[in-house]
Every structure is written in structure tokens, then in C-alpha cells.
Amino acid sequence: MVAGRLLCPLSESAFIELFNQQDLHTRRATAQLMDELSLGYCLADPETRMATEVAHHFHERLGHDVHSLDALVWSKASYALGVLHRVPPDFVPHDVALAIQKGVFDETWEASLTMIVDTIDASPVPSNDELEAAAARLIAENDAHAHELRSFRQAVKAEVRGVAGCFDTTLREVTQRLECRLGIVAPPSGSDEWRAILDMLAAVIAAELDKGTEPGRLPSLAIEAALHASNRWDRQRRLDAHDLLDFRHAAAALAYCDAFFTEKPLRTMIEQKHIALDRRFRCPVRATVAEAVDYVETLGAVR
Q: Please, where are the H alpha helices in 110-167?
């Protein structure tokens, strides 16, 4: 931290990689450093962050007053993987259950990463099996359709369609909220008409991403689509679980931070001329300790 001026927020990817450390001593030391640099602040998990971007996009397009997107994507360390509410037993009165939930939420909200590490201690942590399975599934799908790709632009279009199709639940919630605000009645959920509305909204997202939407619109979706397209276009590169974490980490940092410190292969991918995400989102990327220190010192000198 530079004289209290620099904040290095946590992310879902950083949280997962912390608990991939098997040595409990170094895990705790890393957590302490992360607490110091982040002050416990964290960017919302990818699903929540992207859903927020989608909802924000449609409400803004329809002329509703909305908060700045930059103000809507923050959370705390204890909710790096998403917000979960403990559900009390059915026999607990509703008002008491809500009070319990609020109390647990407030207590958890203030938990530091070090406290979480100490609480978990040597207990088993979730494995990366789900990410490995997702990577294997994507490899199989990419291999099956590799012969269809004739250009990088085509790869981007394919990834854009895939990203846009992942938000049925969000689009349903957005439609229901807009239904109340606009005074319209949507078709019954599950009907062909309802499915057509969701497909139309997904097509709007795809079109926005496909035209190279401005950095402030749907940034996480745009970054993930570009990185997956770059990986797909490189026929010699094989995706793995670590790549998926890296792509999520990059989407959070490039979209909402002033700089991104990462490893060299990811920096190389980000800075490729055909995607140039560092320039597009005005977020310089550094890949060595020396480069990161130099950049931080520059920030300290100018602020």
C-alpha cells in the first residue's frame, strides 16, 4: 500500500488460489498480506458481477436512473465466492429467522481473510474438480467445432454467443422487474412467448458484445469472451482449470482496477494486438515483481 492510497482488492480467483496452498503456515502468512493490501474488500464473484452488468445494461438502455456500475460490484472477503444465507429450521418464526440471518450476515461481513483461514485451519477445502471438468468440457466442445473456425473474428462471435446464453436467470429477473416498472404483463414463465423474450434479450447482449461494446458496458463478459476466443483460436493451447481462474481474475481486474499484476503468459494473451484488452480497458498489465514495484512507485510519486 502506498501511503494509504493504493488498494489491491481480492477476487474469487485469488481466494481459491489462496486455499490451494497446502502449507498452513504460508497460507496464513499470505492471507495476512492479502488482508493488509485489500483491507478486506473484494470484487463480487463472477456470476454476481456479470449478472449485475447485464441488469445494469438493460435498465440503463430503457432510460431508468442507475448507479454507476463501478459502485455495484464490490463485496467483502467472506463473500468472495458469493453470498449465501443460512436458512434456520422451519419451526423458527419468520421474523426470528430474518434476525438470525441478518446477525450471521453482519458477523460474517466483518471477517478477515486471516480469520477465515484460522477457522478452516486443516479442514479439507473444496477441490478444483469442478473447474477441471469445465475445462475438459470446453476442450471437447472446441475440438468438435475447430474445423468451423476460419478467423479469429469467428472465434469471438462463437464465444459471444456462448457468454450471452448463460444469463437466463438474470434475464428472467430483469424482465420481471421491468415488467413492474413499465406496467406491462409478461407472458407466462416457460411459455414459447416467454422463451422468445429471453432469446431476444440474449441476442441483444450478443450484439452489444459483438460490436465491441464500449469499456463501461458489460466489461466482464467482453473480457471473458475475448480471452476464451483467443485460447480457442490458438489450436496448440490446451485449456485447464488454472486458465479458467486466470480468465476470471483478468475479467475482474481489467474491468474495475487501475492496473493488473499477473504472470507472463496471461499478460501476453491480454496484450495481443487482436484483442489488446489492456489498451481497450485502460488497465496496464505487469508480469514481474520488478515491473509491479516500479509501477506502484510511479503511482506513489504522482498522487
A: 113-120, 129-145, 152-164
- Closest Cα partner for 42 from 85, 88, 7, 80? 80
**Three-state SS at 165:** coil
With contact defined as beta carbons under 8 Å apart, do 34 and 78 qualify?
A: no
The three-class DSSP label of residue 43 is strand
Cβ contacts of 154 within 8 Å, gap of 6 or more: 148
pTM across the whole model: 0.85
Assess contact for 116 and 77: CB atoms under 8 A: yes
Between CA 303 and CA 85 the distance in angstroms is 40
Q: Which three cell numbers stand for residue 217?
A: 458496458
pLDDT digits 0-9 by tens, 29-49: 999 999 999 999 999 999 899
Q: How do the residues of the chain divide into helix, strand and coil, expressed in percent and rounded to 5?
A: 65, 5, 35
C-beta separation of 139 from 238 below 8 A: yes
Partners of residue 261 on adjacent β-strands = 286
**CA triplet 7, 8, 11: central angle to 5 degrees?**
135
- Nearest CA-CA partner of 266 in 248, 291, 290, 292: 248
Non-local CB neighbours of 119 within 8 Å, separated by 6+ positions: none
Picking from 9, 33, 7, the residue whose alpha carbon sits closest to that of residue 21 is 33
